[in-house]
Request: fold
Amino acid sequence: MFYARINKIKVFDNREGFLGIFNRHAELRIYSYVAGAGYVSEQIQSPQLSLADLMDLQDEAARRQKLLEAVLADAKHFAQSYSLEINRVKDNQTLLFGESGLVIYQRDTIPDKLDIQLWVIESDEDIRNFAVDADNVLNSDEFKGLFTTVETALTIANPVVAGTIAVSGVVVNILRRKLRNNKDDLVGYWQDSLNRIEHYPHGTRDRQDVYDTTGNILVDYTLFGFENELIING
Reply:
């Protein structure tokens, strides 16, 4: 099993005060999107799709549809999202998530690569609806335009994995568009791209007080994983 969890988040400015004078409470939404790769790549030549399957189709529209269907099916096992709203958060407050932490990613096996994205946002109706929008990311026009032509996809060794990895970028761009009109909505954004060999060779990693890209929040997180040995009786 493998888990990625947030242990606590320190918020310096909740973006709700006026010129830093009044420390008003804010309703904040924590949104995470985590994608793990490695074991997925081992399933590339599954019965769902292979390069030969694509090349056997003469019509480009049929190839595109077949590729999208395979990525849609694969992405369901590839990435996970999570959202949580916390009320009455003040400036300089530390958000705690109990002894077990806030689990944002869970898998049966330890991934070779892990991409973590975490947003802390001043909640409003538009952002609350983002969780619903994210469910439709894979059917969005932006996602369907990842491969401009099927011929481009055929030059990629593993087109299914390439598509599922690119989903993370689609999610980020959708949220950026939502935040563009009101920059004060963004309280903090933290992103980390990790690989098992360098960052968690034994399946574990623990970090405290990690600054986000805005310098407005600190994140404590833990990766914890173990692999069960296969026992064969005989």
About this structure: Residues 2-225 form one domain. The mean pLDDT is 78. The radius of gyration is 20 Å. The chain has one domain: 2-225.
